[in-house]
Amino acid sequence: MNVQDLGKILGDMYNKAPQGKQVAKIHLFGVKYAEVIHKNHYSVKDIVTASGINISYTTEVSKGIKLSEYVVPRD
């Protein structure tokens, strides 16, 4: 999985989120993909850029990555 793949997933999660749940979906992306991002030393900024969403959401992805140490996503 590369930066472009992650960007597409993030963009899809954001764009398909119900109204008012977009930021939660960005956090969820960070939680779900934190291991891949860390393992490959990917830049969060590059992933957000590849997603096509606003670059200001870089902070929100980073929050999700930090949360991944404490939470597990539900299906």
Which regions have little confidence, pLDDT < 50, spanning 5+ residues? none
| Count of distinct structural domains | 1
Silhouette: globular
What is the percent of helical residues? 55-70%
Overall pLDDT score: 96
Put simply, the count of helices is: 4
Q: Determine Rg (CA atoms, Å).
A: 11 Å
Order of helices and strands: HHHH
Proportion in β-strands: under 5%
Q: Termini separation (Å)?
A: 21 Å
Question: Quaternary status of these chains?
Answer: single chain
DSSP summary, beta strand count: 0
Going by helix content, strand content and strand pairing, the class is: mainly alpha
Major sheet: none
Q: Can you characterise this structure?
A:
The protein has one domain (3-67). It has helices at residues 3-16, 22-39, 44-51, 58-67. The mean pLDDT is 96. With 75 residues, the chain is mostly helical. Helix 1 packs antiparallel against helix 2, helix 1 crosses helix 3 (44-51) and helix 2 crosses helix 4 (58-67). The protein has 4 helices and no strands.
Summarize the structure.
The chain is mostly helical.
Brief descriptors of the model:
single chain; 75 residues; mainly alpha; 67% helix
Write the layout of secondary structure elements.
Elements: H1 3-16, H2 22-39, H3 44-51, H4 58-67
Helix pairs in contact: 1-2, 1-3, 2-4
